[in-house]
Every structure is written in C-alpha cells, then in structure tokens.
C-alpha cells in the first residue's frame, strides 16, 4: 500500500549494540496477540467469566442538570434474581473519586451534573434481569438551569456546577465554573503588533470527538476471603485506578489487587475510572463475583471525550512573512467533572503557538465546568485543538501575504535551540522545516484516478459506492499542516515507571521475565518490552508477565510516554540485572580468565562476552540455579509547573513533531469529501519497532482525519443531552474512508531519552486534521472555521 | 420472548394469524439492532429462516419475483441486468456481512424512510406480494408506505415476495451518506427510464416521512420528453429541463433536521442527485445501453 521510507542521517547516535539474538531493539517483531485479535480469539475484558457471577448494571441520569428529589428502588429490589440495588446511601466509604480532582461521585447524590451520570446500581444473576431492574428504579428530578458554554458558565449569576470548590486550582481561577486558567505572557504582543504589516484573526470551533475504542468498558470484580477484592479490568493506568478505588471501598490498597484484562483500544478514554469502583462495591456487598460490561450506547456515556473548544487567534507578520506576534484565547469545555481538564488547559496554552518562533505572545487557555458530557484525555490532549486553529491561521496569513503556505511555515519554523513561549529551551532536534519539505517533495497522487475505459469507478470518487458522482462537481485540493506535541507528563508531575526484571535458567536456557504494570492498549509495549530485554540481556527468550499491581506503577499508557518511560525503566532494570549477572560470573569464573576483571563485559547471544567479542561463559553456566531479580523505579528528567501569571516554566519533558500533506477530492455540489492521500513525515527519535511506528503514525493520522470530516458527539445545546450515542450516528472512518498514508520517518535521537526515542502516537493526530481542512478549503474556497466539516457546511445548507 | 420457528410458509402464516404481534425475522439486520438497543421487546419473534423459498427468485417475462429474504449480495451478483437500480442500491447497504444477511423483505417490513431499497423499488415499479391465512394479495408499491415506519400490511400478513418490473431502460441510484461506506442514508434517489411506456419514475429516500415518488417532477419530465420528441430523437436533455426536474424533485421532499443532516441539505442533495441520475440514465439511453454506468461489477 503506502510507500514508507526511513531516514537515518549519518552520524546520529541511534545504533544499538548488535546482539546475536533476534527480535531486539530496532526490529519489527510481530505482536504475540496479533493473530488472536484478527481471528477473534483474543480474550478482551468483556469476555471474562466466573462461576456463580452476577452482572452489574448502572442506572444513568436522563437529564443533564437536576436535583435528585427521590430515588425509589423498591420495585427493582423485589424482582427475582436481583441481589442488590444500591444508591449513594449505600456507598461504603469515600463518595467521590477523580484522578486529579476528587469531584466525581461514585453514585450521584444531591444532584446530577450531566446526561448519563450514574445514579443507581443493580446486581442480578442475568444481565437482562439487571437491565430490567435498573429500568424499574424511579428517580424524581427537579431540573436546574444548564451551563453549556463560556457565557453561561461565567455569567455573574451563573449556577455553580460544583459548589464549595476546595481544590488546588479553586484559589486562582476567575470563576468557580472555570476549572483552571493558564495564561502565558512572553515579550510584548501589543508592542510587536505595531511591527506587523499584516494581521489575521480567526475564531475556530473544534467539535467533541470520542475515542471510539471498540472494546467497551468492562471488568470482573471477585471478592476475596481476606475481605479484599481481585479486580480484572481494561484500563490505561492500574495504579491511578487503585489510588482512586481503595478509598471508595474503604480498603487499604493492598486489599485491592488489580490485574489488567484484555484492552480493546483506549486513546485516553480509559485513563479515568469507569466501572471499577461500582463492580467492586457490588462484589463486596453481595459476596459474589460481579461482571460489568457497558453496551455501545452506554459506552458513549461511560468515558470522557475530547474537549470541544472555541479558539480565538490573532497572528501578525511582516511583509516578508516573519511572524511578529500571536494572541490567543482557548476555551475548552471540560463538562461536568474535571477529569484531566487542568492538564489539557496547560497543554493547550503551552503548545498554542505551534512549532513556530514567535517572541511576543499573549496566551490564555481556560477549561470550563459545564453540564455537558465530561471531557478529559484523548490522543493529542489539548494540542490537537490548538493545532487546528494555528494551522488555519498560517494558511490565512499566507493567503494574505501572497506567500506559499509551506514557505511561510518553514520561514518561521522552530528548531533545536528555539525558546518556547514558556521560556523552555528546545534542546533536542526539532526538524519542523525539514518535515514540511519532505511531505511537500513527495510526488502527487495522479489526478482523476476514477477514470477508466469502463467508465467512472465510483470507489475512487467522493461518495464511493453510494454512486453520487461520476466526476461531476469534483475538485481536488491540497493542504499542509505541522504540529507540536509534548511527550510524557508535564508541569512538575512526578512521572515515573517501574520495571521488575528476573533472569534465570530454565531447561538450560537463560530466560528473562519482564514484569511491569504498563497497560498494553494496542501501542505495542508487548513487543517493545521484550525487544529491550533481548538487547540488554542478550537472551532470546523473554516472558512478559501480565500487568498487575503486584509491581510498582508504570504510569499511564498515554501522552506518548510508554516506550520512553516503561521502556526506560526496563532498560535501567536490565542494566542492573546484567551487572548482577556479571558479578556472579566474576565470582565464579574470575580466576580463570583475566578478561573478567579487565574487559568491558556484555551479555550477548546467551553468553558473557568481552567488548572484543570473546565469549567467557554462557549465562546458563554463570547462573546455574540462581535467579537474579530487581525492581527499580525510573524517572525522566524533572519538569516545572507553569507560573500561574506568566506561564513561564520548563514544563515539558520532550516535544514531538509531525507534518502532513493532505490531498482531497471534494464533490463541491454535494459537499462530500474523499481524502485521496495523507502523507506524513515525523521524527521518531529511534524506531524501536519500525512496524509499530508506522502503525501508530497511520492510526493517529486516521483519527485526525475522522475529526476532520465526520467524528463528532452532538450535544443538544438546549438540553445538554447527547444526540448520537451509537456507531450508527457517531461515524468513524471505515477502510473506504482511509486514504493511502505514506510515512516518512526520521530518527534524530533525543540525547535525554533511552535509545533516543521520541513519543510517536500523538503527533500525527494533530496535523492530520488541519491538513485535511486546508485541502478542503483549497478545493472549495470556503473559510471553514469548524471541524468536523459536514456536507451542509460545504453546500451552504445550514448547520444541524 | 417466544421464538417461533415455522418449517413452512403455511406454518408461518398460521403462526402469524395466531400471534399477530409476532415480529418476523429473517436476516435480522434491522430487528436484532432494535432488540439489542432494547428499543423493542416483541412478545414473539417469527423466524422465517427455515422457509427456503423466501430466498429464491424467478425471472419472468416482464417481472422478477424476488423472494422476501433474497440477500442483497445475491441481487448484486445475479440480477444486475434485470434490476439495475436495485442492484446499485444493494451496493450501498451497510457492510458485506449485512448484505449477506439482509433482504428487501426486511426493508419493506420495517418501512423506514431510510431503507436503501425503497427509492429503487419506487422507480422500477413493483408490487409487494403479501399473504395471510385469509389469502394472498399484491400491494402496488405506490400504496405500500403509509406513514413513518408503517406499511399497508394487515397484522396477520407476511411479505412473501416482490414482483419488480424488469428494466426496460436505464436505471440509476444515488445515496448520500457522510462516509463512504456503512452509513445510513442522509437522503437517496432512484430514477428509472421506462422507454416502453415513455415514462420516467423516481424514488426519494430519507427526505420525507415515507419513501416517496416525485410525481410532479415525473409528470413534468414525461411531458417535456414527449413534447420535444426526445424518446425518438435521442437528443441531449436541455439543462433547463434537467434543472426544473431537479427543482421539482427537491420540492417533493418533506425532510427534517436531525443528527444526520439538515432539511435544507436534504432538499439540495436530492436535487443534485436527480439532475445527475437523469443525465446518466439519459446518456445510457442515447447510447442504447440499458446499463448502469458507474457501477463496479
């Protein structure tokens, strides 16, 4: 399909010592779960079963904002097969949880704050019985005024979504309905604006995207004899869950034993708690194992979404295209509960300038509390919304200057040594201009590919097999975009991972076991962890222990951080194990050969070898019956919080960059779009698994395409209710919507990162969307200030 | 919920007579979605899958008798010449898996305005063969759709087959969805030229409470074609005629705003599809090919 290329500039220190084992760092080892997933045999969290288990079912609010007047559970309790019907009154301990703000009720009490909030809970011996019992619970609501946007949230008489806030941001925000506000001031934007020959302003809207993972929220809680609970669940971060679950159960953390169950996609949507606490409460209450599985409809209410946003931008430039200043205000709607809104605000603010050098900026980002669905983490995390807006601005500016849009970007592109608006030095490669050059230099896909001697092949046209055009009204457009994303957890967060490595001899062969709590959500840790152990320990056989809470935290599988962080932790622990193995070798065999004392020793191909390549002993002979094991915590370099007034601070760990060129064909009469090609260039630092790298980049690109032309959760502004909670009406790209995605990746090592890696999963999601929008603008001549763009926007037939 | 499994058509009719609320199920591509979402909890499901004849078709002199359960895949594979409009419509139904299971009987039974087959059936012209223990009758397609998701069936009747006129001229079908596959119609349009009767028939989907024909547009076009001697001289249809036809098709819509699209867009898109499908079919007619240019057979 796509022609992918890999570029390693000469002299970059990315090569890893060659080992004599297969499947080490840099190889495209295949996923052990790949075939199982494709053939439908992989056990996802929804496939678990336990003898004598019950099924849990949530009753969710039918209104967005209301006082709960009464809850009558009597009819539900009276049903045969029902074991428990619980409301907030039955909660055993803490009534609220949350990753950063403990603002989310386990079950609503007092009031509900969004459509679909959990209000009551049922356990029954059959899922259908549980559903019917939940339907028999009678909840009386007294509706309250709705907060649905910035104006209604910050009005002087606005109803407070959360009264009596007492969190780490409540002291500095201008209004209690604002979760967090992050300004960034650098230079003097007002003064710099005077030097501008050209100024462009724009107001942009970013729709609410859903992660749309295919495996719905699900898990199994099994009560244990010691009064604790064993919980099997698909999540992105076991230890963050644990920290939130235990207080709500009134149990110490060691009585809540969590094991990762098969994850069917995440993209940020599993970073928050879903059914974990509720299933555990039911299990402890009934003394029976309890399984919970959301159906597709419920899943749309069961996790946070990407923050919809309003973005107001002003850019200035001199006549020759040098950016003078930027002012922006970004309003992110966090919905009813904070989730990770504060961090999304920090990201949006600190990355709002894009990958450009602008010395004078005035930036403000705020996150709202509202009665809309809660929003939180999703691939790209605040940087996505900003990129959509600043890239539209770059095109507007280029048009106004009469410049080529790529040249304008290249002229202002940041590079290693640039100072970010936060004052942070970009201290590793930032090949922004080069990435743009690469996507621009690619040959264009041929025009009018639908034409054949047999007539028009509709599969190659907008509308596809729906047969809406045979070429009429079809116009091609080309657009470019580039973005910047941070990698890892920022703003002073103590971000670490833990790896436990064991090395022993089994049946005469050295075997390494890698035990971490890292969530495999499809990103490829399952191959990469073994690759690193093979490279570092020189053993062929590596066992990946299931992820659980019996080992220290790996942190979240998000923010593009796991290869860097858990990869780094594994590398570090392996180095310690290797040293221990060598010590044993020196003790046993040191007297036989002087090299044991004098040479640099390595583990390669199951042997201890000198740096000169001389084998001294097999690992099997060194270890015999002894096992070597270590569990170590590993951290990236520390970051700082952003100043609450100036936004200054070394807030980020690492930056990632990707550029896209989109080629689209638009049926300008019907407003239907076919994306023909989405070419990507990205710096990945080091491709630990090249096949995974390409998969991540193509996946991120496709998710960006989705929010460009179809993906949006539509919330009725009059009721704050979700109107399309299904895959019938929340559309995600099918294979027929997915274009050729040629990937050109660079490997410019980050000297601070293990093997030089750079987080790769998020950056392609950023620039994909604005590139597609730019191409549609080029084809239609329309301004298009919102995404996703729908047929009615392209045909002047009104918004829905 | 009781699951009734008649072994024969006669048994099915008896079961339906005994349990008029029973919901017939064949491919299950509509019914199972409704049940899974708990939108519907029928007392009885009447499984028609053991009745082999419902999956069969016969090509007659003038019509095709299409069994109610003939899956869309079979229509695409076997009836492209006889039923070109319906074959094109079948291509737009959901995914390959759904096309292997779903059939026209289900579309008619559900009678959703968004059913993909309706515009093609209206344009081709057909009769729906329905039967009960009381006897058999044929309902002209023009009388079949009676309201939103309602049809002319009596509670004890089952759909047995559809008698669809074999194409005597070019037919076309277009559907707008907001992605390139697996999508419910925002709106759809079917058009069939009938040179034998020198008439044109249309069908509009998802742009009114029921599938409808644009009768005023048809009458206008029939008159314009007759007047200009177009059927005989095979001239290109003038843009003004095509435009007026398109405008009248738009005017035949009575759409709503919903999450899938605006009313205004639906009217607009139906007009565009009407003009394009008229151009395509007329070009085929002039070229002498009663074919479906644009398909990917």
Automatic annotation (TrEMBL), chain A:
GO molecular function: iron ion binding; oxidoreductase activity
SMART domains tied to this protein: Ald_Xan_dh_C (SM01008)
Residue stretches making up the Aldehyde oxidase/xanthine dehydrogenase a/b hammerhead domain: 39-145
Recorded superkingdom: Bacteria
InterPro entries from the UniProt entry: Ald_Oxase/Xan_DH_a/b, Ald_Oxase/Xan_DH_a/b_sf, Ald_Oxase/xanthine_DH-like, AldOxase/xan_DH_MoCoBD1, AldOxase/xan_DH_MoCoBD2, AldOxase/xan_DH_Mopterin-bd_sf
Chain segments carrying region Disordered: 1-28, 443-467
Pfam assignment, any one: Ald_Xan_dh_C
SUPFAM superfamilies, sorted: CO dehydrogenase molybdoprotein N-domain-like, Molybdenum cofactor-binding domain
Name of the protein in its database record: Xanthine dehydrogenase subunit D
Native species: Streptomyces antnestii
Classification lineage: Bacteria, Bacillati, Actinomycetota, Actinomycetes, Kitasatosporales
Automatic annotation (TrEMBL), chain B:
Annotated keywords: FAD, Flavoprotein, Oxidoreductase
Origin: domain of life: Bacteria
Gene3D superfamilies in the record: 3.30.465.10, CO dehydrogenase flavoprotein, C-terminal domain (3.30.390.50), Uridine Diphospho-n-acetylenolpyruvylglucosamine Reductase, domain 2 (3.30.43.10)
Matches recorded under InterPro entries: CO_DH_flav_C, CO_DH_flav_C_dom_sf, Diverse_Substr_Oxidored, FAD-bd_PCMH, FAD-bd_PCMH-like_sf, FAD-bd_PCMH_sub1, FAD-bd_PCMH_sub2, Mopterin_DH_FAD-bd
Gene Ontology MF annotations: FAD binding; oxidoreductase activity
Keyword presence, Oxidoreductase: yes
SUPFAM superfamilies per record: CO dehydrogenase flavoprotein C-terminal domain-like, FAD-binding/transporter-associated domain-like
Cell membrane recorded as keyword: no
Residues of the FAD-binding PCMH-type domain: 1-169
Residues of the signal peptide: none
Identification of the protein by name: Xanthine dehydrogenase family protein subunit M
Organism: Streptomyces antnestii
């Amino acid at each position: 399909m796509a022609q992918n290329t890999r570029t390693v500039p000469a002299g970059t220190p990315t090569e890893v010592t060659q080992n004599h084992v297969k499947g080490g760092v840099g190889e495209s080892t295949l996923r052990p779960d790949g075939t199982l997933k494709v053939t439908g045999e992989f056990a996802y969290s929804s496939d678990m079963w336990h003898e004598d288990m019950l099924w849990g079912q949530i009753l969710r609010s039918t209104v967005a904002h209301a006082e709960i007047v009464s809850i009558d559970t009597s009819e539900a309790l009276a049903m045969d097969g029902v074991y428990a019907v619980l409301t907030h009154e039955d909660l055993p301990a803490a009534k609220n949880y949350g990753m950063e703000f403990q603002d989310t009720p386990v079950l609503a009490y007092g009031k509900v704050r969004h459509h679909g909030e959990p209000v009551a809970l049922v356990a029954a011996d059959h899922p259908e019985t549980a559903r019917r019992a939940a339907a028999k619970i009678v909840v009386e609501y007294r509706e309250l005024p709705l907060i649905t946007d910035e104006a209604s949230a910050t009005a002087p008489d606005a109803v407070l979504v959360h009264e009596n806030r007492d969190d780490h941001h409540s002291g500095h925000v201008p209004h209690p309905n604002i979760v967090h506000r992050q300004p960034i001031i650098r230079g003097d934007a007002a003064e710099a604006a005077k030097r501008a020959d050209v100024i462009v302003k724009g107001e942009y809207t970013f729709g609410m995207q859903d992660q749309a993972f295919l495996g719905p929220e699900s898990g199994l809680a099994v009560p244990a004899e010691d009064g604790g609970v064993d919980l099997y669940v698909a999540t992105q971060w076991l230890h963050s869950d644990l920290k939130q679950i235990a207080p709500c159960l009134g149990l110490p953390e060691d009585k809540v034993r969590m094991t990762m169950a098969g994850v069917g996609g995440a993209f940020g949507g599993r970073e928050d708690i879903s059914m974990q606490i509720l299933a555990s409460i039911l299990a402890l209450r009934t003394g029976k194992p309890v399984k919970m599985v959301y159906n597709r409809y419920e899943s749309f209410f069961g996790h946070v979404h990407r923050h919809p946003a309003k973005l107001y931008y002003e850019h200035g430039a001199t006549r020759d295209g040098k950016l003078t200043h930027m002012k922006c205000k970004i309003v992110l709607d966090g919905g009813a509960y904070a989730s990770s809104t504060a961090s999304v605000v920090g990201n949006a603010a600190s990355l709002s300038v894009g990958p450009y050098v602008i010395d004078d900026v005035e930036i403000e980002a705020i996150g709202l509390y509202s009665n809309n669905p809660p929003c939180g983490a999703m691939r790209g995390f605040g940087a996505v919304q900003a990129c959509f807006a600043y890239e539209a601005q770059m095109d507007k500016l280029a048009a106004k200057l009469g410049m080529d849009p790529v040249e304008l970007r290249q002229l202002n592109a940041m590079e290693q040594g640039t100072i970010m608006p936060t004052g942070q030095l970009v201290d590793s490669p930032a090949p922004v201009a080069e990435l743009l050059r690469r996507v621009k230099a690619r040959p264009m896909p041929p025009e009018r590919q639908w034409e054949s001697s047999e007539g028009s092949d509709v599969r190659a046209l907008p509308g596809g097999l729906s047969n809406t055009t045979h070429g009429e009204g079809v116009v091609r457009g080309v657009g470019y975009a580039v973005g910047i994303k941070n990698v890892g957890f920022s703003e002073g967060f103590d971000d670490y991972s833990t790896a436990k490595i064991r090395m022993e001899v089994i049946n005469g062969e050295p075997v390494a076991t890698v035990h971490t709590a890292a969530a495999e959500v499809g990103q490829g840790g399952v191959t990469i962890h073994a690759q690193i152990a093979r490279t570092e320990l020189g053993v062929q056989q590596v066992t990946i222990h299931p992820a659980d809470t019996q080992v220290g935290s790996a942190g979240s599988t998000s923010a593009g951080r796991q290869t860097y962080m858990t990869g780094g932790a594994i590398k570090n622990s392996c180095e310690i194990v290797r040293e221990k193995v060598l010590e044993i070798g020196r003790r046993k065999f040191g007297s036989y050969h002087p090299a044991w004392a004098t040479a640099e020793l390595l583990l390669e191909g199951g042997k201890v070898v000198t740096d000169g390549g001389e084998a001294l002993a097999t690992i099997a002979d060194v270890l015999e019956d002894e096992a070597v094991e270590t569990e170590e915590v590993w951290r990236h370099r520390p970051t700082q919080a952003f100043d609450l007034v100036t936004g200054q601070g070394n807030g980020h760990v690492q930056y990632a960059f990707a550029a896209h060129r989109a080629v689209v064909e638009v049926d300008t009469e019907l407003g239907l779009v076919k994306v023909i090609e989405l070419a990507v260039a990205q710096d990945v630092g080091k491709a630990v698994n090249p096949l995974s790298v390409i998969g991540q980049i193509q996946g991120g690109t496709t998710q960006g395409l989705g929010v460009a032309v179809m993906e949006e959760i539509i919330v009725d502004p009059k009721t704050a209710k979700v109107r399309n909670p299904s895959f019938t009406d929340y559309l995600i790209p099918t294979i027929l919507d997915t274009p050729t995605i040629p990937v050109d990746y660079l490997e410019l090592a980050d000297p601070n990162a293990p093997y030089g890696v750079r987080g790769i999963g998020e950056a392609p999601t950023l620039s994909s969307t604005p590139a597609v929008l730019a191409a549609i603008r080029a084809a239609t001549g329309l301004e298009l200030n919102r995404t996703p763009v729908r047929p009615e926007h392209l045909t002047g037939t009104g918004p829905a | 919920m009781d699951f009734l499994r008649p072994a024969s058509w006669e048994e099915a009719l008896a079961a339906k007579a005994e349990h008029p609320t029973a919901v017939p199920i064949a491919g299950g591509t509509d019914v199972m979605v409704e049940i899974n979402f708990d939108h519907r909890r029928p007392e009885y499901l009447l499984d028609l899958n053991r009745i082999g004849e419902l999956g069969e078709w016969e090509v007659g002199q003038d019509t095709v008798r299409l069994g109610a359960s003939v899956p869309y895949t079979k229509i695409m594979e076997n009836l492209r010449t006889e039923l070109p409009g319906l074959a094109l419509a079948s291509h737009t139904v959901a995914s390959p898996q759904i096309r292997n299971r779903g059939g026209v009987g289900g579309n008619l039974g559900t009678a959703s305005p968004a059913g993909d087959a309706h515009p093609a059936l209206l344009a081709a012209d057909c009769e729906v063969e329905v039967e009960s223990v009381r006897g058999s009758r044929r309902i002209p397609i023009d009388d079949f759709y009676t309201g939103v998701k309602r049809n002319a069936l009596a509670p004890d009747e089952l759909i047995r087959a559809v008698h669809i006129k074999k194409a005597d001229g070019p037919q076309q079908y277009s559907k707008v969805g907001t992605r390139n596959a697996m999508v419910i119609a925002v709106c759809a349009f079917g058009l069939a030229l009938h040179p034998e009767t020198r008439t044109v028939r249309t069908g509009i989907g998802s742009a009114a409470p029921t599938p409808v024909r644009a009768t005023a547009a048809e009458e206008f076009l029939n008159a314009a074609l007759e007047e200009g001697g177009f059927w005989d001289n095979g001239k290109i249809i003038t843009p003004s005629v095509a435009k007026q036809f398109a405008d009248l098709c738009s005017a035949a819509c009575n759409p709503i705003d919903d999450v899938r699209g605006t009313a205004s867009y639906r009217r607009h898109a139906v007009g565009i599809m009407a003009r394009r499908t008229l151009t395509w079919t007329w070009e085929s007619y002039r070229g002498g090919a009663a074919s479906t240019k644009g398909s990917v057979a």
